[in-house]
């Protein structure tokens, strides 16, 4: 085989914080010194107007600005920074620039695996027709089928170019050159966001190309916008790297399952029947998968996500989803790695909370400390409130339900990121198996199927947004086996009548409650003979903000409400005409968001009605915009008796309500 030339750009040693960031942002950066992210910019050489093809954006012309901008996301990839720049044509017409922060999980010691990649392809694959291609790639994520896909290029498409590294993301460039971008992105199995700049050749008339894409589910983020002068495009993994470089009114996210080109704009490439066709119903034709097939599909999804060359662990919330991940993972971890050390498991919550107590029981069921190194982050309410501005800076959202869960998730990721680079999580099961309590008010199976499709479509804005931002803020990669695309198709091909929720079963923690199909699937022992304890298997679904402590949300709401005046609420519709805050809690979060991301409020895709249940086709009072109505349903038999009322005033539990504890917003945001 012939070899492609992979050239290396300049690489910075020290990662200086951007001078354009506020003191608040600088303080946040210092706390997050290690996680994979990209920054890219290009002149709009595709514009029909010559006056708008060349941007004066500093990120394109000043290497120090590119370095500073890339360093804003150093937390996503502390293992290396690489910067590259060039022209979009052989004649030097049109500039492009890329920056990348690497979190090394696959081939971690190889510097040839550092991105951005620059491929100078001089050999021909099936779709190159003997032409050369110069392809520049910056990517974020993991491509699980990289070996299989490269073998397909060689064996089925005549690709003749060797790989230059063992990086899983390198295959994106080979597939792009061999198959063409539109086909290549459909072949990728993984979580990803990437940008490609293909240089043109004036001698042959080959036009330059730009291509950006995001994975089908939205596990990895990608934003784009016009540069401030309107003559170029900028891309970034996080909004913070666009601040100061773009026209904020043009900022958009690349939606899950979409690609973008300057000629076509956004194009949806992920169109499975279960998601796009209202009449999808294989169960009516006897084509639904069996429960054994679905179980094996999940086992395969877990095995696929064990691809790593570094130590890893798993999040163990004590909810049934994370317990299922751990039950499937444990025997495979031993068999596939040969490692007999206890695998790290990470839990967050207040002492005696539903999550902490259930997680401890699950660790015992998996063989205890001999097999699981259980690392717990037990917190008290007072220690976390001052973290909220920092968390919102990293979350880049003001969606209230999401921020509530992000607070304990921050602490969990911080604890895990100190020990490992990758974790498996249980995210996504609720969107496939009707896991939320408001599903008990659904009127028929078709409503359930349609609602699952609706909330699945929001994953990239909600659950996965939180998972990515909170883990990557601590140089930690989270993998989500429940959202494997093949497994998802199987789960959504199950008759929704099997996902109906019985209200009485919810009250008694028994079969018939939410996610009964999933719970039954993993009720038996795994290959090691370990079973999920019954109180854990049949406990109520708890969002993380609820499971960490039944009264945590009410404490949080009372605390932040004290930071907002009645006058501010009265003027909220004037101050924030878009997605106007309805509560003091919502206004508090919005105020912090605007301090960092002014002009970008339109990028946030918030829940209709202020909560997940607000957009359902049926009425339910299980959830409102202020949270779960009956938090008592979350308690289970593994907890110690609660010594106080969940409605007891904060001060009665020793929680400070002094003036010092309620510092004004400005001091939160500037320290």
Topology:
Layout: E1 2-3, E2 5-6, H1 23-31, E3 37-43, H2 58-61, H3 63-71, E4 81-87, E5 95-101, E6 117-121, E7 133-143, H4 146-157, E8 161-162, H5 170-179, H6 181-187, E9 190-198, E10 209-214, E11 223-226, E12 232-236, E13 252-253, E14 258-261, E15 265-268, H7 273-276, H8 291-304, E16 312-315, H9 320-337, E17 343-349, H10 354-365, E18 372-378, H11 388-395, H12 400-417, E19 422-424, H13 429-433, H14 445-456, H15 463-472, E20 477-479, H16 485-491, H17 503-508, H18 516-521, H19 534-537, H20 544-547, H21 552-561, H22 566-570, H23 572-575, H24 584-597, E21 623-624, E22 627-628, H25 665-670
Parallel strand pairs: 1-8, 16-17, 16-19, 17-18, 19-20
Antiparallel strand pairs: 2-6, 3-5, 3-12, 4-5, 6-7, 7-9, 9-10, 10-14, 11-12, 11-13, 14-15, 21-22
